[in-house]
Structure formats: structure tokens, C-alpha cells
From TrEMBL:
GTP binds at residues 192-199, 253-256, 319-322, 347-349. It comes from Halostagnicola kamekurae. This is GTPase HflX. GTPase that associates with the 50S ribosomal subunit and may have a role during protein synthesis or ribosome biogenesis. Monomer. Associates with the 50S ribosomal subunit. CDD domains: HflX. The gene is hflX. The lineage of its organism: Archaea, Methanobacteriati, Methanobacteriota, Stenosarchaea group, Halobacteria. SUPFAM superfamilies: P-loop containing nucleoside triphosphate hydrolases (SSF52540). GO terms for cellular component: cytoplasm.
Length: 430
């Protein structure tokens, strides 16, 4: 479908690279663009002359969609709709992102989050339509769509219903995270902007042979992650077991950040970000091949988002080092040192320095503790011995006539559980 790009900035030269990428990701064929450097026009976003130029360009190129790389208010959308040729759809940056999200949503949770974001976006527009109707404005509402008197209340009711369902899903996922942690798993989350290479890195970190046997431990999450050079290939979360012995580590890939997201959209995907907030370690993945100013701005945004609720240590991973020279990499690492101290540099595509990253993950995760237990020889003892083998690194097992001596190292939570179960065995044998 043919689309025109429109963008206004207060000053300087408008850059349409990202909005063009977003449009292509949604399946549009970009046939032209109209840009302007000036303060926003309250009625049209663009100046009146430029808005008429946009309408003429839409007619000349037979574009059926105009995509603004700006946030359009309800009345701006209405006024632009009156200027553009009949049948031309208007999208702003956020409706375009929602369209992409809707195309990629596979799981029930992702679909609900997209629906919630769409409803939050639609609510002020429904309110604007009500206002226009009361003023007896044009019945077609142009860029705002058709008017339905009850729509505003319907939206509010749907938002409430979806919030409740998402809360139930999040409670279920939180219980699963707690079970994984109790089973001896360390939880590592990948965070960062879309297209930074998180999914590709996940594939490098994953121990593919062990994915299936861990399926029951995280049945809500897919065992595969796409690795493609396109935006938003990961909309939900994808978890795989990492190749990190003797630890049991689960790495989760999450939806990517994108610049200039409004609060209502971030809030709609809050439950996806909970995978990051509740992790033991966060890997903040950065595309080091991008311009330094852009990397800096993205790191600031990521830190603002993560530090709001995240308590886990954050390790910055400078990815795509295969796309930059050593000198450029050193220069960028030095310039970013305040935001990304002691980063790990990798090429997820080439597999460069992945072993170094695994070592860093091992160092940053909570330390394991050593324990030595003497277990009475009872009918249930071997079940506990087997459980410790599954959830810890067993260094020695000595079987006596009346007891079993185990020496092992594990997460503190696993040691606590092992002690509790050993006490129960002791009490039962007394």
C-alpha cells in the first residue's frame, strides 16, 4: 500500500530514516515525503501551506495513507482529514507502531497489550468525536473516523476488562518465575532498543539442546527467537536456557524500546517489562554501529526506564562490533563510559566474545554458596539427593550404612530449601 511520510521538527533538518523503517516494517510502500522545520501548528501540525502541499502530493502519488512522524492530536487529525483527498487514511507515529505490534502479536498476553494500547490511544479521539458531534461538525469526522455515541463508555469498559485479564496473566507468570528461581534458575533479561540484536544474542547464549527438557519449567514462553533485521521481531517474551555450567540460567528476550513512546503506550506493555524488572541480571544491549549521539540518547532513555523499578545489576553489551573499526569502538566506549562502565563488546551475528559475556554473566549473578548436609537414610532420602543433583552443583556424595553425606554449591534459595527438606527427613526418621 502506497504511503507518504510527513514530519515536522522545531528546528534543524528532519530525519525520516526511522519512520521510513517503521513504515516498511508495517508493509507500506513509501512513495514520498513532506518535511518541515518550524514550530507546530495547533490546527494542522504542519503549516497551512505545507499541509496543502501534502494533500497535493497525496493526490499526485495516489497514496492511500499519510504517516506522520509526529504525535497528532484529535483535532489536528480531523483538520488534516478535511484537506487530504477522500479515502486517504492518516496515521501518526504511534498508530503506526500499534499497527506493527498488532501484526506481530502472537500470544494472548501480547494481543491484550496491543488491544489495551489501541484503546488508550482511541479514547481521547472518541471524546473529541463526542465534542464535535455536540458542535454539529461534519458527520464524517474526516481523519477521526465514524462517530458512535456509546463508543466512549465501551472503550472505558474494555480497558478495565483487559487490565484485569493482564493482571491475572502477570500473577501466573510471576508464580512461574518464583518456581524457576526456587528450582535453582538464575533469571537474566535482555533489554534495549528494537533492532539492537537482542534476539540474535539470545540464540548465541542459548544451549539449544536443553531447551525442550526445560519446557515444563516455562511453558508460557516460546523456545525460539527470531533473528531478523527488522523492527519488533520480538513482541512478547522469549526464554531459553543459557549455556552456562554449572549454573542453570534462563535468558529472556523482551520487546524492544523505541524512541518517543508516549506514557500510555509504555504503560500498556508494562507486564512485558516485568520480565526485566524481576530478573537477577539485566543485559542492556546497544547497537554500537549507530552514531554516538543516538547511542547516548538511547542509553539515557533505557536507564530512566530501568532504574525506575529495576533492582538487578545492569551490564551494558555493545553489540555489532563487526560493523565498526577497533578505533571507532574504543572511541565510542570511552565516550559512553559514564553511562556504560566496563561494557562487554560482542558481535552476536559472528559470535565474537560470547564466551567473555557468559563469564561476565556468571560473575555478576548472585554468588553460589557451599553446603554440606548429612541426611538420614530413609525411603525419601534418594528423592532429595536427586533434587539436589538437579538444582545444584554436587561436588561429592558419600553413602554410609545409616546416612548420606552431600557436599554441593547452589543458589542461597536452593540451599535453604535443601536444609528445610533435610530437617523434615531428620524429623520423620526420629
Amino acid at each position: 500500500m502506497k504511503a507518504l511520510i510527513a514530519k515536522r521538527i522545531d528546528s534543524g533538518t528532519p530525519d525520516t530514516t526511522e519512520i521510513r523503517d517503521l513504515a516498511r516494517a508495517a508493509g507500506y510502500d513509501v512513495v514520498g515525503e513532506i518535511t518541515q522545520s518550524r514550530t507546530a501548528d495547533a490546527a494542522l501540525q504542519l503549516g497551512e501551506g505545507k499541509a496543502h502541499e501534502l494533500a497535493a502530493e497525496a493526490e499526485a502519488t495516489d497514496a492511500k495513507t499519510v504517516i506522520f512522524d509526529n504525535r497528532l492530536g484529535p483535532y489536528q487529525m480531523y483538520n488534516l482529514g478535511k484537506l487530504l483527498p477522500e479515502g486517504v487514511e492518516i496515521l501518526d507515529r504511534f498508530t503506526l507502531i500499534l499497527e506493527i505490534f498488532g501484526q506481530r502479536a502472537q500470544t494472548r498476553k501480547a494481543q491484550l497489550q496491543v488491544e489495551l494500547a489501541e484503546l488508550r490511544y482511541e479514547l481521547p479521539r472518541a471524546e473529541a468525536k463526542t465534542s464535535l458531534a455536540k458542535r454539529d461538525e461534519h458527520p464524517g469526522f474526516m481523519g477521526l473516523g465514524e462517530y458512535d455515541e456509546s463508543r466512549e463508555q465501551d472503550i472505558k469498559a474494555q480497558i478495565s476488562r483487559i487490565r484485569d485479564e493482564l493482571e491475572q496473566i502477570e500473577q501466573t507468570e510471576q508464580h512461574r518465575r518464583e518456581r524457576r528461581r526456587a528450582s535453582g534458575f538464575d533469571l537474566v533479561a535482555l533489554a534495549g532498543y528494537t533492532n539492537a540484536g537482542k534476539s540474535t544474542l539470545l540464540r548465541q547464549l542459548a544451549d539449544d539442546l536443553d531447551v525442550d527438557e526445560n519446557e515444563e519449567l516455562h511453558p508460557d514462553l516460546d523456545s525460539t527467537a527470531e533473528s531478523q533485521d527488522r523492527l519488533f521481531t520480538t513482541l512478547g517474551t522469549t526464554t531459553r536456557r543459557a549455556a552456562l555450567e554449572p549454573r542453570d540460567v534462563l535468558v529472556t528476550d523482551t520487546v524492544g524500546f523505541i524512541s518517543d513512546l508516549p506514557h500510555w503506550l509504555v504503560e500498556s506493555f508494562k507486564s512485558t517489562l516485568d520480565s526485566v524488572y524481576r530478573a537477577d541480571l539485566v543485559l542492556l544491549v546497544v547497537d554500537v554501529s549507530e552514531p554516538i549521539d543516538e547511542i547516548h540518547e538511547k542509553l539515557v532513555t533505557c536507564h530512566d526506564t530501568l532504574y525506575e523499578r529495576n533492582e538487578a545489576p545492569i551490564v551494558t553489551v555493545l553489540n555489532k562490533i563487526d560493523a565498526v573499526s577497533e578505533a571507532e569502538l574504543e572511541e565510542k566506549a570511552a565516550a559512553l563510559s559514564a553511562l556504560a562502565p566496563n561494557p562487554v563488546t560482542v558481535s552476536a551475528r559472528e559470535g565474537t566474545n560470547v564466551d567473555e559475556l557468559l563469564e561476565r554473566i556468571d560473575r555478576e549473578l548472585p554468588d553460589w554458596e557451599r553446603e554440606r548436609l548429612v541426611l538420614p537414610m530413609t525411603d525419601d532420602t534418594m528423592s532429595l539427593v536427586s533434587w539436589i543433583h538437579d538444582n545444584a552443583n554436587v561436588e561429592d556424595v558419600t553413602y554410609g550404612d545409616e546416612d548420606v553425606l552431600l557436599s554441593f554449591e547452589a543458589r542461597p534459595m536452593v540451599i535453604s530449601q535443601a536444609r528445610s527438606r533435610a530437617s523434615e527427613l531428620e524429623a520423620a526418621s526420629a
